[in-house]
Amino acid sequence: MRRAVAFSKSIKASQQTTDVFSDLVGMYQTSPGAEQHGMVECNLHHVDGSMNAAIRKDALDWLKRSRPALWRPWTLLKANACSV
Predict the structure, then answer these.
(1) pLDDT in tens, 36-56
(2) Total domains in the fold of the chain
(3) Are 46 and 18 in contact (CB under 8 A)?
């Protein structure tokens, strides 16, 4: 799986899900032996209807790309990355 979209019942729940999932991925990646398991890098971004249309479009375009360029320029995308 290279891309995923998750829907939540509210903006707050979506933001919390993004934060918690990011934390879990980070904890797993820093755990002893994580490199041996081949964990993919997960790049997450929260998008909601209250955001400017241009920002939403940029985020959704980022997700649609077959080999996504990262929406956040300070993060490098690796071959084993998943965009959520």
Answers:
(1) 666 667 788 888 889 999 998
(2) 1
(3) yes
Spatial contact of 51 and 13, defined as CB atoms under 8 Å apart? no
pLDDT tens digits along 5-26: 888 999 999 999 999 988 988 8
pTM of the model: 0.65
Instruction: Specify if 35 maps to a domain.
Output: yes
Classify residue 5: in a domain, yes or no. Answer: no
Rounded CA separation 67/20 (Å): 25
Q: Which residues pair with 82 in a beta bridge?
A: 42
Let me know: does 78 contact 41? Beta carbons within 8 Å.
Answer: yes
Look up the domain containing 46 and give its range. Answer: 11-83
